[in-house]
Amino acid sequence: MTSPLRLTPADRVLVVLPHPDDESLAAGGLLQHALEAGAAIRLLFATDGDNNPWAQRASERSVWITARDRARFGAIRRGEVLAALAALGVGGGAASFLAFPDQGLTALLMRADTHLLDDLRRAVLEFRPTVLVGPSMLDRHPDHSALGVWIALVLEGVDLPLRHLRFFVHDPGQRRRPPGATVVALDQPALGRKRAAIDCHRTQQFWRGTWLRGFAQSEEAFFEVEPALLASAHPVRGVHPAEDGWEVLLASRSRFRSFGPSTLLLAGLGADRRPIRLSVSLWPPFGALPVTDTTSGAALGSARLRGSTRNGRLMLPAHLLPPPAVLYAKVEHAFGFFDEAGWRRVV
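Now predict its structure.
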């Protein structure tokens, strides 16, 4: 079962994006629908996509990349966004660039950095969207999933009657009319404009051109809740109170481009609204496993694994994890750019 997205002139659509090109790939059709409906539109880009070294080497035919080169590349990618928005019919004044570190949003999340949180909250409170569109926290790209958690944390503290629509870029099965999706249909003229917008991202074409153009389909899919099938197959199956603390149920698997020694990450808010940020090294998977507060780098103590990371229970002493009001979990592998899965809410 799917349902069409229907916007009206009363709607205010805020689209929060990890990188330049995500606006065209994930929401090129939605933006056109919003324009046709007469809805107000604002886009926020969390990063400039400047830390993309292989795309930069390919597009510029250069081996060595300096910090100045990356900054220049980020400026080029901003220009590509403005060209893509023009191809979709959206004025460049609708876009804002926050310039947080590309490939660094998970690190910001685990440091409980407040700057991105404040920027997102300010945008929501000032623009007062009726529809907020952003990446799913289950997306396999670390920036996408982390931004999904940031958005969820903002909405925890904002009392606005809005629809939160999530999109996938790095999990192709979730883009093809999956059950429970809200869809935007693209006719041939709209599809042509979306293709033109994708082609504006010239710096990304050498390595990923065919993949990028594969997003020019007759429908775009969005989710008002995180897909239950992906959540049920997540490597963290649950976090439950235990007699002497917390029990974390693990079912982690290596994937292509996500393998090797793993770490459990926990991020959320305590009952006192203070940030919770913990990492638990799951390698080697026996004995005392160190638990670290990632906001300070302080070693807090140790946890123990019963079974294995593929099918086991991690026992976390109560004093290491205060009672959470909300908690998100992720397993991060040492090797490979993408994640086994993104984040999921466990409390």
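Residues 67-88 form the longest helix (22 residues).
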